[in-house]
Structure formats: C-alpha cells, structure tokens
Amino acid sequence: MSRMTARMAEWWRRWPCWSGYAAAGWSLMYGSLGLYWTAGGGGFPFAPAADDRRSGSLLEGSPVEVVAPVMAALGLLGAVVALAMTRGAGSRRAAAAMTAFGWITAAGLTLVIPDYTMIALIAFGPVLLVFAFTGVPGPQEGIGDILYWHRTNLIILFAGGLLWAAATLAHQRRVRGACRHCGRHPAAGPGPSRRTLLRWGRWAVLVACVAPLPYEITRVAWFLGHPLGISHDFLRMMQDTPGMLSVGLGCAIASAVGGVLTHGLVSRWGEVYPRWIWFKAGKPVPPALAVVPASIVAVVLVPAGLMMVWDPDLGDGWALRVPSILWLLWSAGLAVATYAYHLRRRGACRACGRGGSPKPVEGTRGGAPVTAAADGQPATGLRASRR
Length: 387
Known about the structure:
Elements: H1 2-13, H2 15-38, H3 64-87, H4 92-112, H5 117-134, H6 149-176, H7 194-210, H8 213-223, H9 232-240, H10 244-262, H11 287-310, H12 322-325, H13 327-345, E1 361-365, E2 368-372, E3 380-381
C-alpha cells in the first residue's frame, strides 16, 4: 500500500510532463463527440430538456446544428495545440498564441460553461456516495435522477478545463524559463515577505467570510419560517416540498463551516496541528491539505455565481439570486488567501532546488516546543531542559 501511495505521489509530482498529453486526449475525445453529434448522433448534452432534467449551463437549450460543429472544431484543434505545447514546438509568437488559447479554453470549460453542479457535488458528495449504495430517498429512482447526462457532461467539461489549466501553466512556465513545477525563475527575487503575505491573506479571508453571509442568513431564516427576501408563496412552496428547506439549511451550515476552515489559512493551527488533534498535535500540516481543497472550492464558486449573472431575473425575490452572485467575491477572497498561504508555506522545489527554507513554525507536542518546517517536512521536537 505504501509503495502504491509513493508511486501515486511521484506520478502527481510529474504533472508538468503528462498534463499536456492528458489535455490533448481529452480534447480529442470531446472533439470526436462533437463530430458524432454533428452527424446526427443522439445524446447532445445541451439539447432542450424537461425542467427536472435541465442544467443551469450557459449553453443549455442551444441548437445542436450550431454548437456541435464548434465543439468538434475546437476539440480537434485543442488536441493539436496541447501536443504542440507539451513538445515545445513553434516560435515565440506561436507560443504566446498557444498560451492564450490554453487559458481561454481552461476558463471557458471551468468557469463559464458549467453551473452550480460542481459546488453541489462537493457539498453533497458524501451523501451521494451513501445514496449510491442505499438508494435515493423520495420519488427518485436512483442516483441517475440526480447525476443525469446534462449534469454529468458539465463535470466532464470541468475536468477537461482543469487539465487545460495545468497544461497551459506548465507551457507558460517553460516559455518564461521558469521551473515548470514551482514557477520560480532564476532571475526572480525572493518575493513578498511572510508578514506581507500574512497581511494580504487576512484581508482576503475577511472577504471570503463576509461574502457568503447573506446566503447563510437567508437560508437559515427560511428554515425558521421567515420569508426573508422571498415571497410568502415561494416560502410556502418550499415548506410543502419535503427536504427542500433542510437542503438549504445544510448548505448554509456547510458554508459556515467552510468559513471557519478558511481562517486556518492565516492562523497558526493552519500550519501546525493543534493540541486537540492529539494524534497529530505539534506536527506540521501538509500544505496540500489546505491548498488543494481551498483551490477547488475557489474555482467551483465562480460558475455557480456566474449562473445567476446570466439570468438576472429576481423572480420571487432578491434572496434567490443576489446572495449567490456574491459568491464571486467569496471565490476571489478565497483564491487570494489560498495563494498567499501557498507562498508562505512552500519550501525548496524538489525539481529545481530553488527557494530557501521558510521560517519555522513553532508548535507544541505534549507541552514541549516543536519546530515545524513550513514545507511540510517532519517536525523536530526540542525537549525543554529541566532545572
């Protein structure tokens, strides 16, 4: 098991090498699907659907004779561009054009085309995992009634966008002459100080915690029977729908818990395990344990917020849309805080060796001082001498 884990970790560390080929393979696959739908094949994921099978995607309800050929052309072109980026082919101007194409593709697939599906998948992932084995309660016949094709397609698009972002980042760093793994350039300075990064991070955490408050307050108010920002008829409809208000309350609680965890990006317990986690107390928190999930949440909040921008109709009240638009500020604050945390915690790059040892973070283990290297290396206990 440990050998398999080590192989997976090594494979993950080599993402600059394989991400371009993965993006090319994904683009070829989706471009082929575009050709299939252009030729009249069934299953076009943006075709008009019943209300209970629709998604909130920007392309929902678009004509297949227009969108499918574009998908085919962009997919096949993307496969060629991704391979060219990975192999380093082309002039400087061509490299700049490929970088622009890559970032536009990544942004479109991850931020513009999807809807709230990804944030819902993260929030209710454990519940869906249980439903996969026990069945879905209520009128649904199975997990397929929740993750139907229109939604599953958005998950596939989001995954492709992440692959394109990784491939483009590696290509951009290679063109700049920087390390493809850490992004450090030989001629670059040390960057902002730890104190400066911590100050930026605190302001960003404040934004990330304040922005979702309207969403949390309105959902709790609805659960308690107060039609805050909505009509009485809409509240009555939610009360008559089993589980609807409970889902909203669960989302509000998950958002509040996320706000508490966000404070770890600027707190000591976000770098060294606190005492109440007895089996890890005093040991350094691996940076990836905070950076990876926070980065994913920061990304998936964007399409969920933009979905409300594309359709500004307030309908039965402002509270149905306005609080979700503020998720864009939540995403920006969380992204800045996460990046500042990453810069504070990262140590020397294993690939290029650049980057000095960061300032140690002092903790305690069983009452004794502990010095924890901020790059996630094992902590070294320093036993206090007794008189």
